[in-house]
């Protein structure tokens, strides 16, 4: 429209002004991968190690140079029995050699347990290898 078609000086609508507004474009920054491998602290030794899901606590400790009590490595002899102070585990076998009461009070067999979260274990006989 020309200025003489708009004698009162009203703002003019154009096709461009009636088009829907576009959302502003934002740059997407990738989030760096966060390690989700649980970390286990062994007390009273004070040593820590990473416990990936494909390793039992006993295996992961051994790879980290921490010697935990062990013998059978299949959950029956109870040599590796220790106590979970905090954190969660799962077992690699259906029924490890623990009673319901022992499980409830936090006892764990490290030879058949895998860390689900960061853990603190009470293992009085643990040593650095």
Description:
With 129 residues, this protein is of the alpha+beta class. The chain has a domain at 39-128: Beta-grasp domain (Ubiquitin-like (UB roll)), CATH 3.10.20.30. It contains 3 helices and 9 strands; from the N terminus they run αββαβββαββββ. It is elongated. GO terms for molecular function: 2 iron, 2 sulfur cluster binding; metal ion binding.
Low-pLDDT segments: none
The CATH homologous superfamily of the domain at 39-128: Beta-grasp domain
- Please write the CATH class name of the domain at 39-128: Alpha Beta
CATH T-level topology of the domain at 39-128: Ubiquitin-like (UB roll)
The largest β sheet comes out as:
5 strands, mixed
Order of helices and strands: HEEHEEEHEEEE
Protein name: Ferredoxin
Family: Belongs to the 2Fe2S plant-type ferredoxin family.
Cofactor: [2Fe-2S] cluster
Keywords: 2Fe-2S, Electron transport, Iron, Iron-sulfur, Metal-binding, Transport
Per-chain topology:
Blueprint: H1 15-18, E1 39-43, E2 47-50, H2 57-63, E3 66-67, E4 81-86, E5 89-91, H3 100-104, E6 107-109, E7 113-115, E8 119-122, E9 127-128
Parallel strand pairs: 1-8
Antiparallel strand pairs: 1-2, 3-9, 4-6, 4-8, 5-7
Brief write-up:
The chain is of the alpha+beta class and 129 residues long. Helix content is 12%, strand content 25%. The termini are far apart.
Question: What are the defining features of this structure?
Answer:
alpha+beta, elongated, 3 helices, two-stranded antiparallel ribbon, electron transport, 9 strands, 2Fe-2S, five-stranded mixed β-sheet, 129 residues, Ubiquitin-like (UB roll), 2Fe-2S_ferredoxin-type
């Amino acid at each position: 429209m020309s200025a003489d078609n708009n004698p009162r000086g009203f703002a003019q609508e154009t096709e461009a002004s009636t088009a829907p507004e576009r959302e502003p474009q934002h740059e997407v920054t990738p989030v760096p991968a966060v390690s989700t491998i649980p970390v286990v602290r062994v007390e009273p030794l004070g040593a820590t190690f990473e416990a990936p899901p494909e390793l039992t606590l006993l295996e992961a400790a051994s790879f980290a140079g921490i010697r935990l009590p062990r013998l059978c490595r299949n959950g029956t002899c109870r040599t590796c029995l220790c106590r979970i102070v905090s954190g969660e585990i799962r077992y690699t076998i259906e029924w490890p050699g623990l009673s319901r009461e022992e499980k409830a009070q936090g006892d764990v067999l490290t030879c058949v347990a895998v860390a689900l979260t960061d853990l603190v274990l009470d293992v009085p006989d643990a040593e650095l290898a």
